[in-house]
Amino acid sequence: MSLPGTRAGRCRRGRARQSGQSLIATIAITSVVGLLLVASLSWARSSTSQATRTARGDVALQAAEAGVQLYLSRIVEDPRYWRNYVDLAEDPRINTTGGGTVQPGQPWVAGATWTYTGPTVTWRPLQDARFGNAAYSLRVTPAPGDSSAIMVQSTARVMPSGGGNPVVRSVQARVSPLSIADFQMISNQSISYGSAATTTGKLYSAGNIVHAGTATAPLYAANLICRSGSGQNCSGSQAGNTAFQAGAFDRTTTPSFRQKFPTPIDFSSFTQDLADVRAAAQATGVYRTATDATGWMVQFLATGQMRIWKITGSTSDLGATIPRLECPETVTLPGGSQPVYVYFEQSVVIGNGNNLTDRCNATSGARTSVVDGQVTLASRNNVYIGNDIRYEGDTDDVLGLIAAGEVIIGEYSGRDLNWRAATLAQNGQWRTNKGTTDRGTMTFTGSTATSDGGYASMFATRVYNYDPTLQSLRPPLFPTIEGSWQVAYWREVTPP
Predict the structure, then answer these.
(1) Which of 152, 184, 244, 287 is 20 to 30 A from 313 (CA-CA)?
(2) How many other C-beta atoms can be found within 10 angstroms of the C-beta atom of residue 227?
(3) Average per-residue pLDDT for the chain
(4) What is the pLDDT of residues 259-274, one digit of tens each?
(5) Could you tell me the pLDDT band of residue 79, with boundaries at 50, 70 and 90?
(6) pLDDT at residue 127, as a whole number
(7) Which residues, 6 or more positions from 201, have their beta carbon under 8 angstroms from its beta carbon?
(8) What's the rounded Cα separation, in Å, for the pair 116 and 124?
(9) In whole angstroms, what separates CA 69 from the centre of its chain?
């Protein structure tokens, strides 16, 4: 037995105090470890939740992109789909022309404009994923400044499988077709350029391209491309020549013409485009026909107006002479980015370079044209060029000329001619009214599409310039190349 004051007693009291301190330290350490474990589990759950939400966001973005691609596939099959139908995945369209609302999956009123209102209400299921159920919705509007292009906004949401708030993301893409105005020349026949020629736009031929000059843009020929040949025939391909600075593609090259154009350009498909312009002109534009009309003359004015004369009297060749002009009619064009459609059932002449007075003595002299607006003019017959054509502005004005027959430069155009337009001769040639040379210089800026080729040998000097403005500003309803829609740009935007 040890007494309290002895050394043994003092040791027992020290060990008791140490045991109490160890217990406190053990409890403290255990608490800290527990807190760390709880924090670790909480962080793990938070990280897992954040990772899952991020994954849902990625799925939503992919679903929105898929919505754009699905719509693109529909307009590849039918280029007029967006003007004729409300897609099953599209929000209801509100008709701002005639009133009313058209639901998804229903036909749209031809020529009517529309808008959308409120948040997205149409959701089309796209897929089931382990991060949730995805669906998408569309809103489609014409692209500003280009009636052939459209803006497609695709919004997608991913709903968590167990409930909760969805993740929503939205993308917008400008979708546009390849237009015949994207080419300096499209010909359904073989074409030929001399050694003095420099072409600055893309060339396309359903036959051969003989180009002895310099080409700064790509060349595409269904048969052969060469530097020299007999007429418009090539003895062999010379597509690799360095004079073709941006490349040349024919049936012998890799990639070949067929790889570049799996579906060659079909001139017969342009018939529907002509009918579309006619319908648009009858609905909202300028439409003229008369049983006593030999043709019509048009002059565009820098004031945003257009003068129209009916041509009467008999002539065996409207490209050689204009017999008589009736009293003029002045039409004010809407201007700005609003498309203007003009259609004539008879041939139409754009201006004249000689001294010609109308029947009312209201106008006389030569008539040049200045286009102020975005205009497509079409004729069920021929389009004749009678004098200079220029644009009031370089970036916001454009003129498309469509002839169901031929595009012909008249003999009354004057010694020199400087004109600008996107042109189509659907069932004939792009040519001067005669082949003998008695004029000075013709300078053409624009694009040419011709079924049967053509010539401009009435002029001693011919200058052909592609108009780069046509890459971003195309004439309203100007023909496009079937199956060639492309996404011009893509960006993420705020959901509706």
Answers:
(1) 287
(2) 15
(3) 87
(4) 998 888 888 878 778 9
(5) confident
(6) 64
(7) 183, 184, 185, 217, 447, 466
(8) 17
(9) 16
pLDDT in tens, 126-150: 865 554 688 999 999 988 867 678 8
What's the token pair of residue 181?
């105005």
Helix/strand/coil for 414: coil
Total Cβ atoms within 10 A of residue 429: 18
CA distance 115 to 94: 5
Domain range annotation of the chain: 42-178+487-493, 266-479
Enumerate residues 6+ apart whose C-beta is below 8 A from 254: none
Contact 349, 311 (CB under 8 A): yes
Instruction: Compute CA distances 391 → 144, 161, 356, whole Å.
Output: 19, 59, 23
* pLDDT at residue 131, as a whole number: 47
Report the distance separating Cα 432 and Cα 418, nearest Å.
14
* Half-sphere CA count of 478, side-chain side, radius 13 A: 35
Residue with more model confidence, 144 or 492? 492
pLDDT at residue 455 tops 70: yes
Distance CA(32)–CA(29), nearest Å, equals 5
Three-class secondary structure assignment of 447-483: EEEECCCEECCCEEEEEEEECHHHHCCCCCCCCECCC
Tokens of 239: 């597509």
Q: Are 124 and 86 in contact (CB under 8 A)?
A: no
Q: Which residues contact 286 (CB under 8 A, 6 or more apart)?
A: 306, 308, 331, 340, 341, 342, 343
| Alpha-carbon torsion angle 228, 462, 188, 174, nearest 10 | 110
Top pLDDT among 155 and 6 is at 155
